[in-house]
């Protein structure tokens, strides 16, 4: 099997699109992706934006 040259590896990296995590959320208030998942009072799941403080579920 032929060895991969440095130029070929660089070419492969340039072709691939940057991937975003499938689990990431954006704040509906400010659009920031800095979001934490927290447990609500009744055991439900809520989210809080660590950039602006907006809370939603």
Overview of the molecule:
The protein is α+β, with helices and mostly antiparallel strands. 18% of the residues lie in helices and 21% in strands. It has one helix spanning 6-15, and strands at residues 35-39, 45-49, 55-56. Strands 1-2-3 form a three-stranded antiparallel sheet, with no helix packed on it. The longest helix has 10 residues, at 6-15. The radius of gyration is 20 Å and the shape is elongated. The termini are far apart. The model has no long low-confidence stretch (mean pLDDT 76).
pLDDT under 50 segments (min length 5)? none
Strand content: 15-25%
Alpha-carbon distance between the two ends: 53 Å
Radius of gyration: 20 Å
**Can you write the helix and strand succession as a string?**
HEEE
Instruction: State the share of residues found in helices, binned by percent.
Output: 10-25%
Largest sheet: 3 strands, antiparallel
How many beta strands in the DSSP annotation?
3
Tally of contiguous helical segments: 1
User: Structural class given helices, strands, pairing?
Assistant: alpha+beta
Residue-averaged pLDDT: 76
Q: State the shape.
A: elongated
* Spatial order of the strands forming the largest sheet: 1-2-3
């Amino acid at each position: 099997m032929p060895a991969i040259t440095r130029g070929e590896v660089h070419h492969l990296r340039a072709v691939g699109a940057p991937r975003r995590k499938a689990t990431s959320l954006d704040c509906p208030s400010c659009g920031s992706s800095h979001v934490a998942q927290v447990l609500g009072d009744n055991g439900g799941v809520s989210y809080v934006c660590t950039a602006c403080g907006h809370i939603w579920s």
